[in-house]
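User: Fold this, then the next.

Assistant: Folding the first:
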Amino acid sequence: MVSKYIFYTIDAVKIDQKTCFLHANLLFYVKCDTIINVLYPSIYSYSQDIPKWIKKDGIGLALILTLGFVQEFDRAEKANVDLYSLIQEEPMPTGHNGMDALLAGLIEWSCYNKKLLVPSWVNKDRFFAKPILHAFDTIGKTQYTIAHTPLAFFRHGVWIEKSSLQYI
């Protein structure tokens, strides 16, 4: 019988009939070395992880890993997953106002690109950065960043270059 554990970064917990591990924001269920199901992370699940990422390595790591949602959202679309199911639940507070605003901007921007209705939770007060979050602050590039920030992020008080939202 295969040992049954869920691996979440360093922690392991017993679960039913499958072994789980987290790798690059993907939760894989495996049994006998075969991937049998891949779960697509919701924005709520990202909000649960952000405080851990900030505590471990600061805001920079949290920004990078959170932006991985763009790739996961595209991957979910290709797999015909109901995209709205990944964004409809309001994220839990992350403990960092700028990261809460980033989540809302990310969802608003993703919905615009996928022609989806934007969930109403993005308009709640806690999803607007105070003060402005200047993601990946680069000395001498502030004006460039402001000029190239998608409107959805700008509206939420997050300055981030559109190129930071692309993946290879």
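Now the next one, as you asked:
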Amino acid sequence: MKVKSGMATRAAFAALLSGSLLVGISPSVAHATEPITPYSCPLSGDQYIYSFTNVARSSRPTDLYSAYITGPGTITYSKSTTATVGASMSASVTAEAGIVFAKASATIGVSVEASKSWTDGFSYALDVPSGQRRRMRLFEESRSFNVTKKSWSTGNCAYVVVYGNQAANAPRSTRVDEWKLEA
């Protein structure tokens, strides 16, 4: 088989040396295609995407609580101190909590974070029903949701699930107090 010399031949040999697959050589021109590699399907957006489902208003307990009493009675809490609240999440989410909560904040309509602390004067009272042993605890408004993380696969030319439907419950960045009785 005879191949013309010149630019087409040099291009064919350059393609062969670079690992490209030669599809065929005609008597007049050498034809080369792009190599088939793990990068055959270029990324067209973000390497990772996160989706959030089952978003609901919720609350997270802080570290502020009263002593227990048995009702009937009233629990009164009045103290200047620091309150701290943290998120709950699966191990997969814990490994990248900052990223997940930043993405969630941009998606779910409220800003959330892994933890927060603040100092204030807290004063509240709640009635305990007769015969019940209860204490009062400060809760912060939060958002519960499930998160799925996907990664772009150049081999599959599609996003593939890294982890799916992992639960998280994160306090809002804005302070929203709620005192509740707990057993």
